[in-house]
Amino acid sequence: MPSKRSAAQQTTKISKTSKIPAALHSLRGVKTWKEATDWLKIRGIEDIECITPDLAGVPRGKMMPTSKFTSNTSLALPSAVYRHTISGEYPDETGQFRYDSRDSDIKLVPDLSTLSVVPWETDPTAQVICDIVGSEGEQISYTPRNVLKRVVDLYRQKGWKPVVAPEIEFYLVATNDDPDYPLHPPKGRSGRSILGGQGYSIAGINEFDELIDDIYHFSEKQGLEIDTLIHEEGPAQLEINLRHGDPIELADQVFLFKRTIREAALKHGIYATFMAKPMQGQPGSAMHIHQSVIEINTGRNLFSNPDGSASKEFFNFIGGMQHYVPRTLVMMAPYVNSFRRLTPDMSAPVNTAWGYDNRTTAFRIPVSEPVARRIENRLPSSDANPYLALAASLACGYLGIIEGRDPTAPTEDTANEGEIDLPRGLLEAVALLESAPSLAEVLSPEFIAIYAGVKRGEFETFMQVISPWEREFLLLNV
């Protein structure tokens, strides 16, 4: 029996076939169902994964034969998929959080612009990111991709288009099948575990060069473009920077990159983790977000005046970030572990200050030409759902412009000392999100109700776990 060709081999053959329409050469995305059918057929794709992010950013969906996917099959999920915690539990109804009494179906609608191969699968397999609508095609406001689309559409109605560039940090760690034991860095090609203090070290990257080659290879086959890759300060902590672009496209890329990096690491017998604080005493992992806004008709950067000076909208955007980010922090730091990263005297900011090229502030203004003037939000952690983190950050800036909020004076000195200007825990952050009517209008009341209920449920689950600290200091002393 002839062996099956891999998706990568099939792509290579396709690229050399001149008779195939140009659109079908695309590594990522097609425009029509006819193109999708041909795209799948010429690659010999047997199965397709229809995936969508849940509240945590975990891929959910269905896998099916290609023939079924292209036969106008209706794809449905239970609405309860968006009402369970990261541990798979269904929390009690609290506040405005309620379950659908019928647990009605919601429908997966494939976004064909996201169609790509799954390069780590042995059999030719494709994937497509799906939007969610109701059983009758009505809009569903509480799913992460729809929340982000809602915020982007508010900008569009003003004649603006937000532009973002995420930077995602993550750790490589040795495999660990017992959650009671701390995580440790893996051994690199030298046979030794890498140590900390390797910021921007090329040698640190080279310790895992075969794994990194696979990350690049997998990314290329999916049509995903990495701008740069560096070694961060923590032991075996890496950072991937993505090119700036449309928020929905970049959220899709982060969603797929997380999956890609995990799969590449597993191929080499180690884990990749996006936990905000995986190892005690080591730096946390962030998802910094660079943001700007352009006028759709002119292409002008809204943050810069014609003479190159900073515009009123630029300062109002910062003012909105300062006022509203503490109220949306639970969307950028969504777990108890996330708040372990936001502690004084570490690399993460614990303030709402802003400054020019000042990494101790929450909102840093990088050095740039007026055309590239942007604001970096340094608060989100890498465990955040990228759709929700981007939606929250852009919503804060949008409200700042609409409400004409002025920022404080820029901070020139170290801003990461003294008092903490942010919620200190998950429940406090949830309460702040629920207390802001303006955010409910921008993000949707239904989303906030569901998200807050799930986060409270996750906190209650966490409180059932007895930590080593409690056993060490309370067991025989109290």
Automatic annotation (TrEMBL):
Keyword annotations of the record: ATP-binding, Ligase, Magnesium, Nitrogen fixation, Nucleotide-binding
Coiled coil: none
Ranges where the GS catalytic domain occurs: 144-478
Gene3D superfamilies assigned to the protein according to its UniProt record, in alphabetical order: Glutamine synthetase, N-terminal domain, Glutamine synthetase/guanido kinase, catalytic domain
GO molecular function: ATP binding; glutamine synthetase activity
Residues in GS beta-grasp domain copies: 40-137
Keyword Lyase recorded: no
One of the GO BP terms on file: polyamine catabolic process
Listed cofactors: Mg(2+)
Pfam family, one: Gln-synt_C
Residues spanning the membrane: none
Family the entry assigns: Belongs to the glutamine synthetase family.
Main function: Catalyzes the ATP-dependent biosynthesis of glutamine from glutamate and ammonia.
PANTHER family in the cross-refs: GAMMA-GLUTAMYLPUTRESCINE SYNTHETASE, GS CATALYTIC DOMAIN-CONTAINING PROTEIN
Name of this chain's protein: Glutamine synthetase
Originating organism: Ensifer canadensis
